[in-house]
Amino acid sequence: MARKLLMTAMICSLVLVLSLATFTVNAQTQWDGGDDLPTNPLECPGAEAAADPAATEEPMDMPAYDGGSAVNAPDLAGQAITLVDIPKLIGIGYFNATAQGTQEAAAELGNVTVINDGPTEANIDDQITFIDNYITQGVNGVLFAANDPVAIAPVLKKALEAGIHVVGYDANSQPDAREWFVNQAEFNGIAKALIDNMAAEQGEDAAFAIVTSTFTTPNQARWIAEMQAYQEKCYPSMRWLETVEAQEDSKLSFDQATTLINKYGDELKGLFGMTSVATPAAADAVTQAGQCGNIAVVGLATPNPMKPFVAADCVKSVVLWNPVDLGYAAVYVMRAVVDGTLTSESTSVEAGRLGTLQVVNGSEILLGPAFTFNKENINDFDF
Question: What's the pTM value of the predicted model, to 2 decimals?
């Protein structure tokens, strides 16, 4: 009898150990759609105020410049230049707004012409073809938002080798394939804003899913990785259920969000939209499913498509930056590169109405912090 009791206890202990091990493995599983680069989660709510800045701040060494360079580029300082802007795709509100910003900057500067062009779908092969064609036609600079950071690198390097300056914005490439990248906001800052808003709306133990573009889209992969790191640090009881791809397509985003709603039922408490297309589509799916108030939608989007959902109290938090300013800054950065006022030794750059923008992470220009649109402020914006 004693032997049986001992054996039973040993089996129970083994089951418990295996269960704990399984839980640990699951807790550490990388979320689909996130990259495997190092993360740097920000302080949890409350910790920022509690920390003593004098005790915690340390001088930060600026990383060495890691961008590329245009080979034998002509000296066009102060002269008229022609740029082409080729984002992930054209014809959607977000990139219409960045295009508007490029034209505003060009008009202010007076010696810059910007051509806004690109694929009508977020397809990296099409984007590469567009860039290649403009290299052949001859332009002085290429602005881009990458559909894939690795796949786009060879054609961008081809531009640099042809003496054409290359500046990215919104979605980066490999650093040596462009000279500078205008970073709309630090990835960990976006991650914090998204997760904090979800926790505030649905509680610190909410289960959620993510609708993204593709698992290889660089900025979204960075945000998702930083979201995971921040959630595990600050809200360990929150649960990620699944990430789905929707290709920055409105109908597919709606269908994917609807599938998640039906698949997880009452377990699903929140949906994150990682694109300006996915977020309104997810909000529409929640609305059509009659789940407003039960399933929160938090995501990245321009304000105009979100206004009806915010007005109806179906969406409370929309996180973004000003995409008009993003396109505007990219043109000013390109002008500074051509003029020789932004070099590998620079720590900042002047950007017209935006003032002085700081150099971060070696070869990036930081636009500014993330911003949350809500019912109180969303009608103050029109883009």
Answer: 0.77
